[in-house]
Design a protein that fits this description.
It is a single chain. A 3-stranded antiparallel beta sheet has the order 1-3-2, with helices on one face. The chain is flat. It has a domain at 20-119: Ribosomal protein L10, N-terminal RNA-binding domain (Alpha-Beta Plaits), CATH 3.30.70. It has 5 helices and 5 strands; from the N terminus they run H-E-H-E-H-H-E-H-E-E. Helix content is 33%, strand content 16%. The protein has helices at residues 20-36, 50-60, 71-78, 91-94, 110-119; strands at residues 39-44, 64-67, 101-106, 136-139, 147-150. By secondary structure, it is of the alpha+beta class. Helix 1 crosses helix 3. Component of the ribosome assembly machinery. Nuclear paralog of the ribosomal protein P0, it binds pre-60S subunits at an early stage of assembly in the nucleolus, and is replaced by P0 in cytoplasmic pre-60S subunits and mature 80S ribosomes. GO terms for molecular function: RNA binding.
């Protein structure tokens, strides 16, 4: 029986997949950053907004570089074990790359980096799934006159 021409999936997007070449560019740029910068850090984040990261990147542009991407690609660029690491001891950073995390390369000393990250705390509106930071009570009139409390 011939195949039906009606049930074929049609891709509507014009985007092309990021292939091996794109991953190799990321690996090479992270390895170049290892040579250019004196310090490397792994940072993690929750509900990060792109605009806030852009502001931090712009503030630290002359002395630092951020990398966000696939954790496995970043792990490969650092080296997953002592045998395939790029610099001595750098494979230990790869173990911390999981979840929402990224790499931060800088020429600034540790104390300055800690001060900048503590100083750069931004408050923003909550998103779906966020936990409330304050308790509040809603009172409404109902036939049984009960109060509801939310945490």
């Amino acid at each position: 029986m011939p195949k039906s021409k009606r049930n074929r999936p049609v891709t509507l997007s014009k985007t092309k997949k990021k292939g091996r070449e794109h991953k190799e560019v990321i690996v090479n740029s992270i390895r170049q950053a290892l040579e250019d910068y004196s310090y490397a850090y792994v940072f993690s984040f929750e509900n990060m907004r792109n605009q806030k990261l852009k502001e931090l990147r712009e503030q630290l542009k002359p002395s630092s570089r951020f990398f966000l991407g696939s954790n496995k690609v970043m792990q490969v660029s650092l080296g997953r074990s002592a045998a395939d690491e790029v610099k001595p001891g750098i494979h230990k950073l790869a173990k911390f790359l999981h979840g929402d995390s990224g790499l931060f390369f800088t020429k600034l000393p540790k104390e300055e980096v800690e001060r900048l990250f503590k100083q750069f705390e931004e408050h923003d509106f909550s998103r779906a799934g966020s936990i409330a930071t304050e308790k509040f009570t809603l009172t409404f009139m109902h036939s049984s006159e009960e109060n509801l409390q939310f945490n």
